[in-house]
Amino acid sequence: MPQDWNPQAYLNFATQRNRPALELLSHILHRPAQHITDLGCGAGNSTALLREVWQHAHITGVDNSPNMLAAARENLPSCEFIQQDFHDWCSDVPQDVIFANASLQWSPEPETLFSHIIEQLAPNGVLAIQMPDNLNEPSHRLMNEVAQLPQWRTTMQQVASRPNILKVHDSYDIFVKNHCRVDTWHTVYHHVLPDVASIAQMFASTALRPYLACLDETQQFEFQEIYIQKLQQYYPKQYDGQILLSLPRLFIVAEKVQAA
């Protein structure tokens, strides 16, 4: 089983991780809201953004990581935090805003999950989703390539890889069928990083976690070293010595409307 999430490692790249959360938030911040849930809240960096906008709302963060939730509770004592898988989460009160920043892409059953979450919305409530759409990027293709090397192939057979997110047209139809008005778009971020080792560090707390959790400390070091070597072929240094990490993301804002 993957080790629990590491809040400090995750927050080391808070600037990069907060950019899409801020963009998503900018599309809903004008809405009045008294009941808000942050699904997959992690260490609470996105929850903190919600608190800044809705200072008097009841805000609940939901996550399945004890370590992440401990960090979130310490940083945001005014918010409630619940340890639960978001597939099982049900709200006692209809929610005005449900925010899901870089979390729902882990679901193996997105159609069922999206429909379930919409049921938790109040009339005219909004579900705001942001998901990385980067499985075809070199940063992620190379993880699988390294995992298939002979020394790790057997060990990695049990690794649960992240599923592909739904195509835009398919996700749009799910929300419309569930009586939502939908706005959806793609954004590609080009994060400026000092070197390719920073890519490995950035994903060590997210996409690389399932691979590294199967290995001992020595093997983890070797895995990451090979991964970094392969990254160098795809992320050349820019004029200033930095590199650019392209990271596409899908955004969905779905407002629940009354059925005709």
UniProtKB/TrEMBL annotation:
Keywords, sorted A to Z: Methyltransferase, Transferase
GO term, biological process aspect, one: methylation
UniProt entry tagged with the keyword Nucleus: no
Residues in Methyltransferase domain copies: 34-148
EC number: 2.1.1.144
An annotated Gene Ontology molecular function: trans-aconitate 2-methyltransferase activity
Coiled-coil residue windows: none
Pfam families: Methyltransf_31 (PF13847)
InterPro entries according to UniProt: Methyltranfer_dom, SAM-dependent_MTases_sf, Trans_acon_MeTrfase_C
PANTHER family assigned: TRANS-ACONITATE 2-METHYLTRANSFERASE (PTHR43861:SF1), TRANS-ACONITATE 2-METHYLTRANSFERASE-RELATED (PTHR43861)
Protein name in UniProt: Trans-aconitate 2-methyltransferase
Organism: Alysiella crassa
Lineage: Bacteria, Pseudomonadati, Pseudomonadota, Betaproteobacteria, Neisseriales
